[in-house]
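Q: Give me the 3D complex with aspartic acid.
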Amino acid sequence: MIVCKFGGTSVASAEQIKKVANIVKSNPERKIVAVSAPGKRSSDDIKVTDLLIDLANTVMMKGNVEEKIRAVVNRYRDIADELGLDNLISDIIEQDIRGRVAEDYTNKEIFLDNIKASGEDNNAKLIACYFNAIGMAAKYVSPKDRLILNDIPERTYALPEAYENLSVLKDTEEIIVFPGFFGYTKEGILRTFDRGGSDITGSILASAVGADLYENFTDVDCVFAANPKVVNDPVDIKEISYREMRELSYAGFSVFHDEALMPVYKQGIPVNIKNTNNPTAPGTRILPTRTQSNRPVTGISADSGFSILYVSKYLMNREVGFGRKLLQIIEEENISYEHTPSGLDDISVIMRSSQLTPEIEKRIMHRVKNELCADDVQFSHNFSMIVIVGEGMRHNTGLAARAAAAISGTGANIEMINQGSSEVSLVFGVRSEFENQILKGLYEEFFAAIPTA
Ligand code: ASP
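A: Here is the predicted complex, encoded as structure tokens.
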């Protein structure tokens, strides 16, 4: 059995949904289909999820909502009309959205999640309706009472019972159309995953039914070795291991959500990233292990928006518990950290800047100075992390030296180097203004000279 997930641009219009139907029809093993909300139809279009967020905020600010409701409903009506469906499905969708808008918004987060999730929920109903209309036996299946989530809004994940509940879907005769992006807590409260979270739903479904393959349909032929917006015509990645993909998607490879790997990884289910607009292209396969190529590096990615907390104290290395106390201060501010490179007398803690405010920084610096008696404590901002990833890196000597030389060739200074113990990745912290030129320099060093594997 194959579980497929179709992203926003794959289900953005009637024309795209017809392509989805053809893809599903062309292989009877494609039995479970997870769908996103309608995405952008062109580069200047607005995703339905963004329209819904705007709608929810307008309701909560007691603004004029009618026009915003119409904008969302019309997206579905246009699709349904063009697919030749009767008004019933559009009326059901309109009623659903109006019902959600009329709900109580005392708890803003719950209200917002409920409105946001309607994007995928209504699209799944519409697509199931279309499949049936063209003779493909299909049914919409709700995540309610099935995809059970924990109850920590900022860190949503599926509980073991979700996999148990969803496992029965493997015996389905009809094609199941399942909305991505959300589930329910045990108490029946709807919660969404992070943006792009329909990838996670697809992965949970694939794992629950023990699928042979998880196909993730998007709008590119494959994953590239570097960001094509920065590097000219980068090579495509045909095969990549879970570990490599995890490291790359952490730092800016937005093709596949980084949290979506875990459910399939646990079961060793291969993932195939494919293009709805070119379904015969082989795409990129994410596998437990991959055949080695002649390249030590598989991909290079970069992400900005990092801050560094620098702490120094003479004889820090001799002080038992210093690191733990420092990290505890950060934990008590509810901040997660990414790396902690250290020297004898100093340590840096690298974290996403979005978690910080001037007040939080002030509190942390005050506590580190006073409670840990540090000599120097400073925050600096505007850093990027550049990640070089490749299973082949372990077996290659001098790779770090080559990377460092390529970076220095661009005139940029390396602020931090971190090589994880798995040796699958090498991370460089640099000032964000150098990010693009470093990416180009590293790509040139590791890819430009070697023919495609
Ligand atoms: N529609 C949601 C978003 O725009 C989730 C998804 O498409 O995966 O983030």
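A quick observation: The longest strand covers residues 299-312.
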